[in-house]
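User: My collaborator sent over this chain with a note saying "see what the structure looks like." That's all I know about it. Can you take a look?
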Amino acid sequence: MFENGVELDTEVSLRVLANMTGHKMRRIQSEIALEKELPWHWEPNVSYHCISTGDVDGLTYLRAAVKQQKIRYALVATWSLAAEDVRELRHWVNRGYIGRLDVYVGEMFLSQGRAIERRELINLCRESGGRLVIFRTHAKVIAIFGERFDCAIAGSANINTNPRVEEMIITVNSELAKFYKDFFDEIKSFERNFDEVKPWQPES
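Assistant: Without extra context I'll predict from the sequence alone. Here is the result:
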């Protein structure tokens, strides 16, 4: 069994399973499923086409990139995500695995029912120097600028788990990552509390 990519012995596995929430179980199963199919090191100018029956969520693709390199900047666009997802993103930011993080989510996050997630996202984006944008969207895109490679991950999978057939395409290409970043940089949020945050620019 693996937890965050680390193989565990049987005794430790049983102990971990006994204390694991359903959310964490799904995360580990998602990670295992993706690791079985993808190479552990993504190659420049290669596209990886992935399709699943809902057992691989969008955050797992970002986790696979985080395990390969430190990420200077990440753009995450998703229609939906859960509070647990925000906490995992914060863990990566706090550990220095991700530098700046910009998050783009759907208008449902203006509702009272998403107040907790919205507050946590605001705090997370401010901590990383990024911004939160709430707007009308159904896009699922991750753009990554890292120490080893830049890439874009786009398709149908939200960050949170959704038990439906989902497809995602990973393209290790700086121009495509910049294409998505430039597009999302122009989007204005319904909430204007990040208007002062300038678009991220790579160091020259």
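A starting point for your reply to your collaborator: Residues 135 and 194 are 13 Å apart (CA to CA).
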